[in-house]
Design goal:
By secondary structure, the chain is of the alpha+beta class. 24% of the residues lie in helices and 40% in strands.
């Protein structure tokens, strides 16, 4: 009985940690690499986020993007003009929503080889 109770508590704690995480889809339209800030358009509204040293910046396969915000992708004015598709992952820490990951979800489209 004690094992059942303990395992139930463990499952509840693990699921509550997952529930605190949120994903936000948007497009990066502005990057200030020197100040670690990005502007993301979400549902037609611009929101600015400051990235801490703990924020992971990854590609659509989950691999770290070399040079972070100073990399080619984020310095490409054409890509920024169109908006770089991203999914932001946030976690509730105390009273605040803290950004934990920026995942680039867009990428180069593969051309149909049959054409």
């Amino acid at each position: 009985m004690l094992r059942l109770f303990a395992s139930t508590i463990v499952v509840l704690l693990a699921s509550s940690a997952v529930l605190d995480a949120a994903e936000i889809k948007g497009k990066i339209t502005k990057v200030d690499a020197n100040n670690n800030k990005i502007t993301v358009t979400i549902d037609g509204k611009d929101q600015e986020y400051t990235l801490t040293k703990d924020v992971k910046i990854v590609n659509n396969k989950g691999k770290d993007i070399k040079d972070g915000l100073k990399g080619k992708l984020f310095q490409n004015t054409k890509a920024l003009a169109k908006g770089i598709a991203v999914t932001l992952t946030t976690e509730k820490q105390g009273d605040k929503e803290v950004l934990t990951q920026v995942k680039v979800t867009g990428g180069k489209k593969k051309k149909n080889q049959n054409q």
